[in-house]
Amino acid sequence: MKIRIAHGRLIDPANRVDTEQDLYIADGRVAAVGEAPDGFVADREIDARELVVCPGLVDIAARLREPGFEYRATLESEMEAAMAGGVTSLAIPPDTDPVLDEPGLVEMLRYRAKRLNRAHIYPVGALTVGLAGERLSEMAELTDAGCVAFSQANVPMTDNKVLLHAMEYAATFDFPVWLQPMAPFLSRGGVAHDGEVASRLGLAGIPTAAETIGLYTHIELARLAGCRLHVTRLSSAEGLKMIKWARREGVDITCDVSINQLHLCDMDIGYFNPHCRLIPPLRSQRDRDALRRGLADGDINALCSNHTPVDDDAKQCPFSEAEPGATGLELLLPLTLKWAEQCSVPLLDALARVTSDAARIIGSQRGGHLSVDARADVCIFDPAGETLVARETLRSQGKNTPFLGLCLPGRVRTTIVEGQIMYGEAR
Amino acid sequence: MRNPQLNKHGELQHLLSLDGLPLSILGAILDIAAPFTEVAEREIKKLPLLRGKSVFNLFFENSTRTRTTFEIAAKRLSADVINLNVSTSSTKKGETLLDTIDNLCAMQADMFVVRHESSGAPYLIADHLHATGRDHIHVINAGDGRHAHPTQGLLDMYTIRHFKKEFHNLIVVVVGDVLHSRVARSQLAALTTLGVPEVRVVGPRTLLPTEVERMGVRVCHDMNEGLRGADVVMMLRLQNERMNGALLPSPQEYFKVWGLTPEKLALAKADAIVLHPGPMNRGVEIDSTVADGGQAVILPQVTFGIAVRMAVMSMLAGN
User: Fold this and answer.
1) Does any domain span residue B77?
2) pLDDT band at B92 (very low <50, low <70, confident <90, very high)
3) Cβ separation of A196 and B4 shorter than 8 Å?
4) Contact status of A205 with chain B (Cβ, < 8 Å)
5) Are B76 and B108 found together in one domain?
């Protein structure tokens, strides 16, 4: 199918393009930008007047809950959510059940996703078998099966020697290692940021030191092992400071933040709102402000949804018993726009954090940009539109989000994956 | 954000916490409690204020004392009281907290008295009742995790007022395991709301919450410094499981440094009173001489506790 997307504001961060230009798609690829290629006859014309045309979003952390947690969400439901959110590439953490430590499982997941023919998936393999932190997973085999990185998801390693070896082994093949900085004993039993709010509410705290100590351990071990380290879901100002320090020391390190930590803080827990039970915990306002600046400055490389659908039964319990996590695929774009608006970040830079910069972290050459011949993954959205976050409007099976009831800026109109219109209508 | 304890007219809908409870309501509960103390001295210890109402004592965590005082309070108001020891019943069979609540609502409950080991559990119940249009049912928090124990806080305030008359000229000291204590959090909230000019907390750093000073208190680690010139000394219970381990080395050392002995109490004002929420660990947080001495008001606390709980229940029932 040949598509012409006409009169839109084309924003392609990778190529530093932000101008009104037409986009031509043929055979699942970007055929041309600006001028139509010779003999191009569009089968479909999309009028994108007053709309933004950008690369399909790349979300580097989205739990689709398969295999094992199908009562919370399925590939079908979450792929629909991704399409409605303009997200065309997803990196999937390994904490499924069973965990992604077997090449066969990864192949199965990719096969299922391919059959659904929606977003592209990029599985992140388990660094250790069963995420148990004891034995290395078959990283080379898992990479052949399609894993783009290796991680412990939210399960911290207790044995630093095993972690060092895992990093060394990954470094042998130049596989990136993604780690959540969380010192195991300091974070154990905690459910909220260890500060005034947790003290008042009588919630067990997780001190910022759990993040900085975990981070320092990861940095030192990565330096020793010579491995590429990606720090997932930064939550504190101190953590960000440490990342900057490590870079000055010459450590190869990238990091991301989730939409929750970018917009919320521990005060939002209010009267024990279980939707605010998250990993990592929501920290102070000062931390949130530092993360917002860090993302604007590019010190934080990417923004992700940390999409974690949780069923109502697991959320409708007292705060500390509630399952951590929030749904987010459909909020990624609106919350990117909200942050850009509030922090006066140019749209081009803001979108880079959820497209080209994120694609770089998962090592995707073909996604996250709209150069000629790139994979034609496109998101068309109305920057003046609004997205209402409500149980009825969310397509994700998980209705759990602290943003429920809010009206957020921006509305996805059309999502195109490899040249196929997967969501929305041409006007 | 809606304060879940108040209805849209700003009246008490549930009693969940003393933190954020307006002074006017706090004061009103103490005022209403006063005449109820006399009911106990009558020959017929009953008032008809809650006649025909069903009060469900819903204890997800074991308790004898608090449950009993709630039961007595409800019965003196002529309510029907149903005691459920949920820790040994439905939740063990996998029923969720809100399923239990829905079932009891179907039995025409009017009031839930809830104790739960998780901070915030009564808020979840209150929120659920509101969301399902059952605003005629009231919730009283009888202790949730480390968060709050508002009726204990109220009875402590009643006791202080009984003996000291005013709050605005007092030095009040709270001693012990503030970190794990829902009683302490309720006391601190009430004391600051009632305008006590100096509230001190005393204890080792391992047992004080992060940023406790943001609760409007002065932190002392030295017991002598903390007690000097105090009008009211509020001792907290130290749980057995915290006595030997990573928080404290031993009960002996705790008693030596933070145990309330007659010598240490002598640093407080001569007419200082000593409170304890019970059950006491004699020889750990408090010396028997003090516990049984003339300055201890621990038994009046228990008596006042019934009156205060009657006051809360009758206020919620609209009397």
Assistant:
1) yes
2) low
3) no
4) yes
5) yes
The pLDDT tens digits of the residues spanning B97-130 come to: 999 999 999 999 999 999 999 999 999 999 999 9
**Is there a single domain that holds both residue B157 and residue B101?**
no
Neighbours of A174 (CB within 10 A): 9
Residues B193, B288, single domain; the answer is yes
pTM here is: 0.95
- Tell me if A303 sits within 8 A of A295, measured CB to CB: yes
Residues B169 and B96 in one domain: no
Among the partner-chain residues A203, A270, A318, the one whose CB lies closest to the CB of B124 is A318
Q: How far apart are the first and last CA of chain B?
A: 27
Which among B120, B182, B209 has the least Cβ separation from residue A319?
B120
One domain for residues B144 and B158: no
Pick A272's closest partner by Cβ from B96, B120, B212: B120
Q: What is the pLDDT of residues A284-304, one digit of tens each?
A: 999 999 999 999 999 999 999
- B184-210 average pLDDT score: 97
Q: Could you say which residues from 85 to 114 on chain B have a Cβ atom under 8 Å away from some Cβ of chain A?
A: 96-98
Count the domains in chain B: 2
By the CB < 8 Å criterion, does B61 face chain A? no
The amino acid occupying position A228 is R
Task: Say whether both B114 and B220 belong to one domain.
Answer: no
Determine contact: A37 vs chain B, CB below 8 A.
Answer: no
CATH architecture of A56-361: Alpha-Beta Barrel (3.20)
Are A196 and B97 within 8 A, CB to CB?
no
Rounded average pLDDT over A387-393? 96
- The CATH number covering residue B156 comes to 3.40.50.1370
* Region A2-11 average pLDDT: 98
Tell me the pLDDT band of B239, cut-offs 50, 70 and 90: confident
- In Å, what is the CA distance from A325 to each residue of A127, A207, A314, B3? 21, 19, 10, 25
Chain B nearest CA to A181, separation (Å): 21
Report the complex ipTM.
Answer: 0.94
Q: Does A405 touch chain B (CB under 8 A)?
A: no
Q: How many Cβ atoms sit within 10 Å of the Cβ of residue B61?
A: 18
- Helix (H) / strand (E) element for A334: namely helix A332-342
What confidence tens digit (pLDDT) does each residue in A373-389 have?
A: 999 999 999 999 999 99
Q: Compute the distance between CA of residue A321 and CA of residue B121 in angstroms, rounded to an integer.
A: 10
pLDDT given at position A207: 98
* A194: nearest CB among B96, B98, B210: B210
Structure tokens at B16: 């969940």
Same domain, B107 and B160: no
Q: Answer yes or no: do B208 and B73 share one domain.
A: no
Structural domain span for residue B93 = 23-148+305-316
